[in-house]
Amino acid sequence: MAYKPVAGAQMAAPNVIPMADIMLVLLIIFMVVTPLLTKDIPVDMPSAANSREMQDADKDDAIVVAITRDGRIYLGSTNVQKDDLSGQIKDRIANRLDKTVYIRSDARAKYGDVVAAVDEVRSAGVDQLGLLTQKMLEKSASARPPAD
Fold first, then answer.
1. Would you say the pTM of this structure is higher than 0.85?
2. What is the pLDDT of residues 4-34, one digit of tens each?
3. Whole-angstrom Cα distance, residue 44 to residue 116?
């Protein structure tokens, strides 16, 4: 008589522990990589109380010129010289219907640097120019000084 091994009972539930480990690793990778994916140059924009919403500035194809505190000019995330700015903007707006360019300037940038960049953008034939600011937070009623 031949010996025939008997198989034990099969487990029907899948083992989810390896899948949870993979998901946690992916979560950590995304948490580390996401801050590195910034497309804009970080500038501390000035605050304005009567600003308008400009949702088009957040689009991927928006033309954004950033001026940093030390006077460097960026077109998107590329550092450009002031003399090259007009030509590069002309190339970008050539085949567009919406010829709007947005300026993001640091609040502590020199006024002359911002005016020079705006002048270069205007000389490229830009129809609309948007100056981006941060919306000023409204002060609460308890923070106001008492009326006399």
1. no
2. 777 777 767 778 888 889 999 999 998 888 7
3. 19
Task: Name the DSSP class of 133.
Answer: -
For tokens 């007009």, name the residue: 86
| Residue 65 in tokens | 């010129």
Report pLDDT for 13.
77
Distance CA 129, CA 118 (A): 8
Task: Please identify, in words, the CATH class of the domain defined by 47-135.
Answer: alpha beta
| Rounded Cα gap, residues 109 and 86, in angstroms | 20
Q: How far apart are CA 27 and CA 71, in angstroms?
A: 38
User: In angstroms, how far is CA 46 from the centroid of its own chain?
Assistant: 16
**By C-alpha distance, which of 27, 26, 57, 53 is closest to 40?**
57
List Cβ neighbours of 56 (8 Å cut-off, separation of 6 or more).
Answer: 62, 98, 100
- Domain positions in the chain are 47-135
Please tell me what DSSP assigns to residue 108. Answer: T
Largest CA distance in the chain: 109
